[in-house]
Amino acid sequence: MSTQVENRPEARLPDWENTRPTKDRYPEIDTPPIPIEAYVSEDFFEAEREKIFKKMWLYAGRMERLQRPGDYFVNTMEVLRTKKDGTYPSFIITRDDHGQVRAFYNACKHRGTKVCWDESESWGTSNRKYFTCRFHGWVYGNDGSLKHVPDEDQFFDLNKAERGLTPVHCAVWKDFIFINVDPSPSQTLKEQLGEHVANLKDFPFERLRKTGIWTATMNVNWKVAIDAFQEGYHVATVHAGTMPDAFNGSLNPYCRPTSIRVYPGGNRSLTFMVSPDYKPDELEMWVRQRGANWYAAAEDGSTNDFVGVNPENDPFFAFDCHGIFPNLLVDPFMGGFYGHEFWPISVNKTRWVGSINFLTPEKPSDILSNEHGKILLRDAFREDTVTLDASQEGIESGGLTDVVMCDHEMAPRHLYNTVMEKVNS
Ligand code: FES
Ligand SMILES: [Fe+2]
């Protein structure tokens, strides 16, 4: 009899009544209140730009945007500006004619003008064999080499081989392209990602296509913004509109992650459960029985090849949240993943990009299932993003000196601790 009780899935949930499971797992993590300086200080923000963002591999886009030779996109990264109040640099990420993925500063080597004037986007792809500067017409190949200079004879000792677009370090993990503007990065991308991503090595990111993408610029510190997406404590309140019962049922009313992992270098991952007493409405039930929605598996089991999710085999699995330091979240589930980029603009301004990604639909019902999940997630993201300005307003108000975080807010704490380590190094 007792064995039967032990085998019930709820018996495998953490003993929340008697423990603080994340602190117990990582006793070395101190848990004092967190001073607000890192969220409000302009000097601190400048230190973050110099010691984190200009030193580390930063996510720049996905390989789905560089399928063919000549495909490219432009990514503006405000945080990498050279001066405190300077203009924003952008980067051209290309696949050259030989298939190699490359990244360049988007700056003409004649007199500096931005070469590609495409809008900064986190979606879409263009294709060019050559990039032509609009100012005087210098022409570059999609490998960055300088191909043509109008009236070349009138220059002085011009060596075209030395005036190609300035390259930026570029590396790819799975389907994710990263760049690093440090002339001599202290780590490879693989070293920076570390042991954390080993679980995801077989997750089929390469087969997943962007189905929905949203962006917003909010008056909030970038860490405050990330933190709102890497804990479940807010779900019962913030998401009372979109998902009142899915994640905070009787077994887990505060939507605690069922497990939290933190890693050296700042990465962390969390696993969330769906409440077993959740009763989807008729429509949600219908779409869930037919295809991938936005968490857990399709009930027909058709998405069971999504390996690498739920690394500790937690009961009632819904989705994981992987925090990839410094500014990327990747949330895989059985059927797809959703992602968040957080681009700091100033100490209290952040550009957020959220997306959801599914397999290419094979039948009409796949589209219905995916679209239903996409819209539900969109509405949840809207709920998440509208609280952020209010958080920053309170933190900056002058009325408090610190904030506190509970055991299931250990991912925000680990992000903070890692930022402090790097800024103070
Ligand atoms: S600045 Fe680009 S061609 Fe002159
Ligand atoms: Fe949320």
- Give the amount of beta strand, in percent: 15-25%
Helix content: 10-25%
What's the count of strands? 19
Task: Assign the CATH topology of the largest domain.
Answer: Naphthalene 1,2-dioxygenase Alpha Subunit, Chain A, domain 1
Low-confidence stretches: none
Number of helical stretches of at least 4 residues: 11
Under CATH, the homologous superfamily of the largest domain reads: Naphthalene 1,2-dioxygenase Alpha Subunit, Chain A, domain 1
For the biggest sheet, the summary is: 7 strands, antiparallel
The CATH class name of the largest domain reads Alpha Beta
Q: Which ligands does the model contain, each kind named once? A: FE2/S2 (inorganic) cluster, fe (ii) ion
Structural classification: alpha+beta
* Number of spatially distinct domains: 2
Ordered list of secondary-structure elements with their pairings:
Blueprint lengths: L1 H6 L13 H5 L8 E2 L1 H4 L1 H12 L4 E5 L8 E6 L13 E6 L5 E5 L20 E2 L2 E3 L6 E3 L4 E3 L18 E7 L2 E5 L8 H5 L14 E11 L3 H6 L7 H4 L20 E4 L5 E6 L8 H7 L28 E8 L3 E6 L2 E11 L2 E11 L4 H23 L1 H8 L6 E2 L6 H14 L2
Antiparallel strand pairs: 1-19, 2-11, 3-4, 3-6, 4-5, 5-10, 7-8, 8-9, 10-11, 12-18, 13-14, 14-15, 15-16, 16-17, 17-18
Helix pairs in contact: 8-9
Bound molecules: FE2/S2 (inorganic) cluster and fe (ii) ion.
The site of fe (ii) ion has 5 residues, from helix 9.
Describe this structure in words.
With 425 residues, the protein is of the alpha+beta class. It has two domains: 2-39 and 196-423, Naphthalene 1,2-dioxygenase Alpha Subunit, Chain A, domain 1, CATH 3.90.380; 57-181, 3-layer Sandwich (Rieske Iron-sulfur Protein), CATH 2.102.10. The protein has eleven helices and 19 strands. The chain has helices at residues 2-7, 21-25, 37-40, 42-53, 189-193, 222-227, 235-238, 282-288, 364-386, 388-395, 410-423; strands spanning 34-35, 58-62, 71-76, 90-95, 101-105, 126-127, 130-132, 139-141, 146-148, 167-173, 176-180, 208-218, 259-262, 268-273, 317-324, 328-333, 336-346, 349-359, 402-403. The strands form four sheets. A seven-stranded antiparallel beta sheet has the order 2-11-10-5-4-3-6, with no helix packed on it. It has a seven-stranded antiparallel beta sheet with strand order 12-18-17-16-15-14-13. A three-stranded antiparallel beta sheet has the order 7-8-9, with no helix packed on it. Helix 8 crosses helix 9 (364-386). 41% of the residues are buried. The model has no long low-confidence stretch (mean pLDDT 93). FE2/S2 (inorganic) cluster is lined by residues 108, 110-113, 133, 135-138.
